[in-house]
Amino acid sequence: MPTQILFPPFHPHKSWRAVDDRIRGGSSVSHLDPLADSSSAGAVRFWGTLDTQTLGGAGFASQCHAFEHRLRLPKDEYAGLAITFSAPSAKQPAPHHPASTEKPRPVEPYEYTLTLKTSTPSLRPDGRRESTISYEHTFPLSGSLTAPTRLVIPWHAFEATYRGRPLPATDPKYIPLDPGSTTENGKTRGGIAEMSVMCRSAFGRQEGEFDLRLIRIEAVGDEERAWDLEAQGRGRRFRAVSWKALGLAAMLCVGLTVAVRFFDWRL
């Protein structure tokens, strides 16, 4: 199955909406705006402020897209997702010495999270969203990322979480990620209902202004995985041939050494 482009177009002011910690009384805010000056057509800017003071160290800011029809990406056809992004400047956390008893201070945001949901959360009477299982992959910015970077995320790299914490497979609420939807007894299971990009505090590790350029999000076709396996096979065959050649060369050297010593003895 070929690679399927999911975004662009992003339609930031139509199909994406902010889901920030303000729904829980926080002060973080996020925006998703088109990049008119971008060389990559259709790219958007995910930016805003991540606050950790209001909620005592916690905080998140995200933009969420709910698919009109549940996205079906079966694992036997798609190997995962790929996100292409860039940043005006890449930030790295300040080093923290394990022996130090001082709690590390929050740094400017350098980590972002791509989140998937296989069900649309219902709303409480107060307008807050009910907690549901999310599948997340967090990636850091490092080095120079002003040029577009493409990150491939296989399905198994999305971690199941509940209320921002890892959800182990032993938990009764745990459901493995199923990006391909199926219908049983009139009820649809699996598939991707929502996708969001998030900047969060990671329990007080980062805070402040953030800025990420989203260029493309795509479903990676299975042929990339097949290409990788083929490349690995070529590597194994090359190593096997190399070892054989090395063995023959060693045998030849030994043979030449014995022959030289034999003629020396005759003389």
Automatic annotation (TrEMBL):
GO terms for molecular function: unfolded protein binding. Residues 13-85 form the NADH:ubiquinone oxidoreductase intermediate-associated protein domain. The chain crosses the membrane at residues 245-263. The keyword Transmembrane applies. It holds the Pfam family CIA30. InterPro entries: NADH-UbQ_OxRdtase-assoc_prot30, NDUFAF1. GO terms for biological process: NADH dehydrogenase complex assembly. Keywords: Membrane, Transmembrane, Transmembrane helix. The keyword Transmembrane applies. This is NADH:ubiquinone oxidoreductase intermediate-associated protein 30 domain-containing protein.
